[in-house]
Write a sequence for this structure.
């Protein structure tokens, strides 16, 4: 009977609990908050909290008062949540924002079962995810350029849009940041600046243990292929297709040749660095460093504002080619799971980041180049790098700068040559002043501000490979022409990873045989001695020698 | 009410820890080591390990680096521990503290500081990667060598040495026949505490610009390349090696301790 009583009371408790849970969950449903799970690179978004002096003083058509300029007070993610929940979407969201350190890290986490709705991997991982069928395509509404609120589709650079459509990514990915791969250098420690023009500085014995390389198989492989194909790449008549094919070769012969080159690089360079390159460049431990353009901007800013030892660093894009890379937002089928509202929220997130004022905030905060190219973005570029011609502008006007360079980024902002140009300090671009003597004019650029300095203006020069922040952030068209998008290695990934391991691991066959055998010999002898020592009492005692010392 | 535990109940927290973080991962490692990407049973990873001159080369390089580190640690630690244990009571604690003090700070921070010191001495530190790796490792592991030796010397009975010199042994013979044999357990446990971890401590190499892989970085590179099977096999082989070394050294310590007790 006792058992039955227990059972009844248990059933009663269950019933009461059940009855109370049902209405609770029912009322929760009507106010349900949708969670958007976003994964992005570390330090790859504006976290807000800017000082008032960091105000970007340009027209902001997206603010209530356009004269307020652009400033990051809260993090973009918080701003998005607030904005989204104030709109009439019919539901509320909250963003679960997490970060990853490398593409491989993200991929491993996805494979381990972490679920995200929206992630921001690099080009090759996007390709891989598309090939695996894991990517949820963007809706037609998102790609509709007529709709005012589709900031991404309306404002993405026509150049970026072209690359994305050439590669068949338009439906699947929305570009966030992009850039080139080049070589950062310190002109004071480099003997001849021409040395930096090619990737083979990595093999140059004059720079033995002075150049550091990114510890990343794709960047290393790209550099090796550039060195391998240097002569072909530098011939004038190479087509873009040929160049792309050369730098995406993954056949056995090429991989083996790259392995040889990388082994020599490993002997010659300072190190393969994961993150130490930034600090070593700033402190002057290394003379040059292969680097992504966005990080270069950051490093140049840091180095010149270093209080104890300000250094002027430069960024060079090798003459033979450069790797053009993109990070883009993709939605994942696993996370979205066919939920239209979630998809809408994810697309809204991408559009919010693409709203030009937010794109400016991100760009200012992280140093990379946004894929967005509206007039606001151009204003920002001009505001940040353009020469101040107004003598009343106490903060930025410098009467000693009289030589200016007319920098042309029209290809990026969508215009004919000459449509989008800014005047920058000519000392921030490295070009041959003798060679371009004909491109020089003398102009009074600042007449409207009552500035009567006669400026020497160099314009129409596109053939430049070395410069400072402006050059690293928006490379000129000539750099883009020799750039290559590196494809995913596909089923050759295993072979190339193995090649990288071979480069990094000491090879038994490379060891000096004398050393190997003598070490082995010493170990064997030591082992034998220890055994003999341990067994010394168990060994049969030697017969005593008969001699004069023995007692008779 | 009084809380009463019997002995086996007191073990529960540790047993849980052991199962969750030692046994379970071990089973996962063994599973991955003997399967391929499709989850089928295979010996391929095993063959891969022993047929590649690169993995064997890495193993030898790691062993060599670890051995050099251990020897240097021993050379520095042995006299230090002896002096520490023999010094007067008041000084002893201060001195010991000086050697333990660095362990209170995280080792990556210490290596970052060491990097600057080495740069000051050597100039371009990337030129001496092997030397720097050894210095970094020694810096990192020295306390682990000093402590077991120190406790060993503390236990050492002074009378034994006095007896030996009374019986006519000179100082060198006293050391060779009495002090050294009695300190073998300390030496052995010091060696196990330095040799084994320094085979895989790749962060030191990374931070001191040695781009050559040792076992730790090799395993890491396989895992980040999403090749869990080969990575697990290397971990497993390493585990077996560590197991063998521990087994051998344990025999040594036991015997020596017994003989030590017999002497006492």
């Amino acid at each position: 009977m006792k058992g039955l009583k227990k059972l009844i009371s248990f059933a009663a408790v269950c019933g009461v609990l059940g009855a109370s849970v049902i209405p609770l969950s029912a009322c929760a449903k009507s106010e349900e908050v949708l969670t958007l799970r976003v994964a992005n690179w570390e330090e790859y978004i504006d976290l807000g909290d800017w000082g008032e002096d960091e105000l970007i003083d340009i027209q902001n058509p997206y603010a209530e008062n356009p004269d307020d300029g652009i400033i990051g007070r809260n993090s973009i993610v918080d701003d998005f949540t607030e904005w989204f929940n104030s709109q009439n979407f019919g539901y509320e969201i909250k963003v679960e924002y997490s970060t990853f350190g490398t593409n491989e890290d993200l991929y491993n986490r996805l494979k381990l079962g972490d679920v995200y709705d929206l992630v921001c991997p690099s080009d090759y991982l996007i390709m891989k995810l598309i090939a695996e069928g894991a990517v949820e395509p963007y809706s037609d509404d998102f790609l509709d350029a007529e709709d005012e609120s589709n900031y991404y589709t309306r404002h993405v650079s026509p150049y970026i849009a072209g690359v994305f459509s050439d590669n068949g990514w338009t439906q699947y990915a929305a570009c966030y940041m992009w850039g080139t791969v080049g070589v950062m250098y310190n002109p004071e420690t480099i003997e001849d600046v021409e040395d930096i023009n090619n990737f083979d500085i990595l093999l140059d014995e004059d720079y033995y243990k002075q150049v550091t390389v990114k510890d990343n198989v794709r960047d290393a492989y790209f550099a090796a292929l550039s060195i391998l194909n240097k002569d072909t790449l530098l011939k004038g008549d190479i087509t873009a297709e040929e160049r792309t094919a050369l730098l995406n070769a993954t056949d056995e012969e090429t991989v083996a040749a790259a392995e040889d080159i990388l082994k020599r690089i490993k002997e010659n360079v300072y190190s393969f660095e994961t993150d130490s390159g930034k600090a070593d460049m700033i402190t002057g431990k290394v003379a040059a460093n292969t680097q992504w353009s966005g990080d270069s901007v950051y490093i140049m800013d840091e180095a010149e504002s270093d209080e104890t030892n300000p250094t002027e660093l430069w960024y060079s894009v090798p003459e033979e080619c450069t790797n053009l890379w993109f990070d883009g937002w993709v939605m994942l089928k696993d996370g979205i799971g066919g939920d239209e509202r979630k998809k809408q929220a994810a697309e809204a997130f991408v559009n919010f980041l693409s709203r030009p004022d937010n794109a400016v905030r991100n760009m200012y905060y992280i140093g990379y180049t946004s894929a967005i190219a509206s007039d606001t973005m151009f204003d920002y570029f001009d505001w940040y790098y353009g020469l101040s011609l107004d003598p009343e502008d106490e903060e930025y006007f410098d009467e000693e700068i009289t030589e200016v360079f007319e920098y042309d980024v029209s290809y990026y902002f969508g215009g004919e040559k000459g449509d989008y140009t800014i005047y920058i300090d000519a000392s921030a671009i490295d070009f041959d002043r003798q060679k371009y003597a004909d491109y020089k004019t003398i102009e009074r650029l600042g007449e409207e501000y009552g500035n009567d300095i006669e400026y020497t203006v160099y314009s129409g020069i596109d053939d430049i490979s070395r410069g400072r922040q402006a050059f690293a952030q928006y490379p000129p068209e000539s750099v883009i022409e020799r750039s290559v998008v590196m494809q995913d290695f596909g089923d050759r990934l295993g072979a190339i990873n193995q090649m990288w391991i071979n480069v990094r691991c000491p090879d038994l066959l490379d060891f000096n045989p004398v050393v190997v055998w003598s070490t082995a010999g010493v170990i064997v002898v030591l082992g034998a001695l220890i055994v003999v020592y341990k067994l010394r009492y168990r060994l049969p005692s030697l017969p005593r020698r008969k001699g004069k010392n023995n007692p008779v | 009410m009084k809380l009463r535990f019997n002995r086996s109940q007191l073990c529960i927290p540790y047993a849980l820890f052991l199962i969750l973080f030692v046994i379970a991962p071990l089973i996962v490692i063994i599973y991955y080591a003997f399967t391929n990407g499709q989850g089928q049973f295979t010996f391929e990873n095993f063959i891969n390990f022993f047929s590649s001159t690169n993995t064997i080369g890495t193993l030898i390089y790691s062993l060599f680096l670890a051995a050099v580190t251990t020897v240097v640690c021993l050379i520095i630690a042995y006299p230090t521990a002896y002096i520490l244990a023999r010094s007067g009571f008041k000084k002893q604690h201060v001195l010991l503290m000086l050697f333990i003090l660095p362990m209170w700070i995280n080792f990556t921070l210490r290596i970052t500081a060491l990097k600057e010191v080495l740069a000051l001495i050597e100039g371009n530190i990337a030129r001496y990667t092997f030397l720097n790796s050894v210095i970094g490792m020694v810096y990192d592991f020295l306390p682990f060598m000093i402590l077991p030796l120190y406790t060993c010397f503390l236990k050492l009975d002074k009378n034994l040495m006095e007896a030996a010199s009374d019986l006519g042994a000179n100082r060198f013979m006293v050391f060779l026949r009495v002090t050294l044999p009695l300190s073998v357990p300390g030496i052995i446990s010091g060696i196990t505490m330095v040799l084994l971890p320094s085979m895989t401590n790749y962060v030191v190499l990374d931070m001191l610009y040695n781009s050559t892989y040792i076992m730790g970085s090799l395993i890491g590179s396989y895992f980040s390349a999403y090749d869990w099977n080969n990575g697990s096999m290397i971990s497993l082989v390493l585990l077996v090696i560590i197991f063998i070394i521990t087994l051998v050294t344990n025999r040594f310590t036991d015997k020596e301790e017994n003989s030590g007790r017999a002497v006492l």
